[in-house]
Amino acid sequence: MTQQNVTRDNAANLKGSEYMQPSIKVSSTVVLKSSNHRNKAIVAYATFLSSSPKANVGGVEIGKQFYKVRINHPTVQDEPLVRPIPGCKTIGDAHAKGLPIAWPSICVEMING
């Protein structure tokens, strides 16, 4: 069996709980992409705070499929939050109040990473 086949076989055998997402360092600047559009437009630049499922945002644990981030520079002010929190319904609201938000990990990308 070739190395490529072994790698593919090993990847196919991983269970969901064993899959490791690429690590992003705390305080790294990341790009948030829209969770609503097929083109995945950039909606904000943010600071990465946590990937721990136990991290808390608005009194709720973020879970396995979300990251905790703080908006630095919104590019689409009226982009709805995936998980609205009291007093914040959009990216612009969260930025104005300086509150951390939960954003789907699949829609978060490292800059230059």
Describe, in plain words, how this protein is organized in 3D:
- This protein is an alpha+beta fold.
- Helix content is 16%, strand content 39%.
- 22% of the residues are buried.
- Residues 1-20 have low confidence and may be disordered.
Strand content: 35-45%
For the terminal residues, how far apart are their CA atoms? 32 Å
Strand order of the largest sheet: 8-5-2-1-9
Quaternary structure state of the chains depicted: single chain
Defining key terms:
two-stranded antiparallel ribbon; 113 residues; Transposase_23; alpha+beta; Transposase Tnp1/En/Spm-like domain-containing protein; single chain; disordered N terminus; 2 helices
In short:
The protein is of the alpha+beta class and 113 residues long. The chain contains two helices and nine strands; from the N terminus they run αβββββββαββ. It has helices at residues 3-13, 91-97; strands spanning 29-33, 42-50, 56-57, 60-61, 66-74, 80-85, 88-90, 100-104, 108-110.
Helices and strands in order:
Blueprint: H1 3-13, E1 29-33, E2 42-50, E3 56-57, E4 60-61, E5 66-74, E6 80-85, E7 88-90, H2 91-97, E8 100-104, E9 108-110
Antiparallel strand pairs: 1-2, 1-9, 2-5, 3-4, 5-8, 6-7
Protein name: Transposase Tnp1/En/Spm-like domain-containing protein
Domain Transposase Tnp1/En/Spm-like: 30-94
Pfam family, one: Transposase_23
